[in-house]
From TrEMBL, chain A:
This is SPT17 protein. Keywords: Coiled coil. It holds the Pfam family IQ. InterPro entries: IQ_motif_EF-hand-BS, P-loop_NTPase. Residues 112-139 form a coiled coil.
Automatic annotation (TrEMBL), chain B:
It holds the Pfam family Arm. It comes from Prunella himalayana. One of its GO terms (biological process) is sperm axoneme assembly. SUPFAM superfamilies: ARM repeat (SSF48371). InterPro entries: ARM-like (IPR011989), ARM-type_fold (IPR016024), Armadillo (IPR000225). This is SPAG6 protein. One of its GO terms (molecular function) is microtubule binding. The lineage of its organism: Eukaryota, Metazoa, Chordata, Craniata, Vertebrata. It comes from the Eukaryota. One of its GO terms (cellular component) is sperm principal piece.
Amino acid sequence: RAIDEDRKIKYEAAVKIQRWFRACRVRVYLRHLAKMAVLIQKWWRGYLRRKLFKGIVETAYYIKKQEFYNEMAVRIQKTWRGYYIRKYIHNYYALKKYLRAVSVNNELVRHELQEFAEMKENEEKMKDLEKKEKEKKYRARKMHYLLSTEQIPGIYNSPFRKSPDQMELLLQKSKPLTHRKQQVKNPVADELYGWPTCKEPPAFIKSLPLLPAGRQKPQGPFRDPAEVLQQRYKPVEPTLRVRESMYSPPAKAREPSQRKEWKDPIHDNEFLPFSSYHKKYEKYEPSLFKSDKYGKEAYGTKYFREVYPKKWIADK
Amino acid sequence: NSGVVCLLRPLLLDVVPSIRQTAALALGRLADYDVELAEAIVKAGILPQLICSLPQENRYYKKTAAFVLRAIAKHSPQLAQAIVQCGALEMLVICLEDFDPGVKEGAAWAFGYIARHNPELSQAVVDAGAVPLLVLCIQEPEIALKRIAASTLSDISKHSPELAQTVVDAGAIAHLAQMIPNPDAKLKRQVLSALSQIAKHSVDLAELVVEAEIFPVVLTCLKDSDEYVKKNGATLIREIAKHTPELSQLIVNSGGVAAVIDCIGSCRGTVRLPGIMTLGYVAAHSENLSMAVIVSKGIPPLCVCLLEEHEDHIKAAAAWALGQIGRHTTEHARHVAVANVLPTLLDIFVDTRSSEDLKTKASGFKALKNILQKCTYLPALEPLLHEAPPTIMKHIIGQFSKVLPHDSKARRLFVTTGGLKKVQEIQAEPGSLLQEYINTINNCYPEEIVR
């Protein structure tokens, strides 16, 4: 039995050793395989990358160039924009010039307006002065009786003064006023038509102009004044055509026929009312003999050949 | 009242013409005096009787009838509407075609009063075909007729752009522009107001008005002795200036700004208001234009307005105009600040009296803010530092913090005038903008001084 166990132990030992050896071999083999796989992958990957590398390098180069160009472009645009805006859009010097021009223009305008205002004021003053002058003259005319005579010195001509007053001279110059003609004023007309634009009231003459009471009747075969006045102031009786206004129905009805007549007239000659009408229009044409540079010659119309009665033989 | 209207009614249909005329005149005067009487007349249905026989009547009756219509229409839109519904507009157009200038004047006046109230009535007037006749009226030699026609055109065109376009299409602008040099003051008032009502609606209409070559002539109106002519002239220029920068440029180029500034200087009261607004509009468009306003010496009159005027809305307008001038760049803000106007603006803003009028406060505040955001002129900012409320303080301190790090002389001045002390006294929440500004300022100085 010890030999059996010995043999078993040796057998198992041998199995172990063989096992171990085989495992080692397999392990070495696997390791080898792995190494080979890695090698293949290494080479394959390197190959792929080397292929792509060119593209990557190109892209990177391109991007770098673009960046550079962009930088340069930005620089150019920056300087250009600054220049352009400063020159045209926000031109400082042009603005200053404009403002100076504006102030100069303003001065001119102010000056002119001042002149205009002064002119207006002067006109107003002149008008006032003229009005005052007129009033003064009118008053002088009214008070012409205050003028001094030889005997009695007037108010404005005191003996203690060296020279007469202004008013005195004015009074001397002015013409006395005459009596104003009496105007007929219709009280009713006044009330109705007190508007500024309505100047003439309708001519309803209710009372006749009054003649002076103690008037002597004028001599001669004159007609009775009442008759005359009645004839003169007979109320107007306008014809039917005049009485109707422009917009009334008969007038409107007449309109189409009027228009038709205007449109187709029978003849175009001017209407001559009287037969001798045309004769008036016959112009006298002077003959060439008698018309001169300075007008008609008197010979032939005003006088003929000169007459010398002393030379006549017939009566002697 | 006591049945007068009923008594007058049969008289209107009397045979004798002068009775009719007198009755119509009486009605007109009654309606003119009181609203209720006018309403009574309309309710009694007299208007159709008044109008029905109008075309056949003589000119005195037409004038009186136009007077009655105008007296009724002037009180309220409803009465004017009643008149339109009676068909009075056609009759008034017939009156406008009449030869007598008095009749035309009455008709034009009636149209004016009707068109004044609202756009629908104006449209009714335009639809009746009145506008070409009014333009013809303007060309007539009588001054009163011209006045009334101009005022009617102004009333028609003020409501909407379409109505203004209708007036323009009738060729009114050329005739109105020809009448500007006329010496009569009331006529000038009406003409200028008509042109400004036309120009205010749109850029095209304003350009049409400008093309009529009003420009140097309108400036003479600004020198007129009549206050309202000046006001209307300034209104016209304002309406033109407010649309586009090109139109404002035109006004500046023709010296209009100088004339407006002189006009502001010579008037008092509400007459100044359109002139102030013109300057504001011109300056608001661009910085070159506001520089032009500054160069034309525009700021001193505006300061004077701010100080002198008692009315709130004029002060608000002046503050707004100054804000528009100063808000573009530091140069502009410096010019405004040099004129010593910032303390006044601050006073307006802080003043408790003007606290009811939000507009004044709001405009003062905005103007101040706009100017301060660009102001680097420190001597002007310093007095404000002592008095300002917190909302303004933020901006002031911000400006200081922008300038002080760079300018040593300014720093020295700031310390000597006690500004630094004031800054320390301000308490701000940490992390807010104000605290950052304060920190920036403190960093400019060495530690000992800060403490």
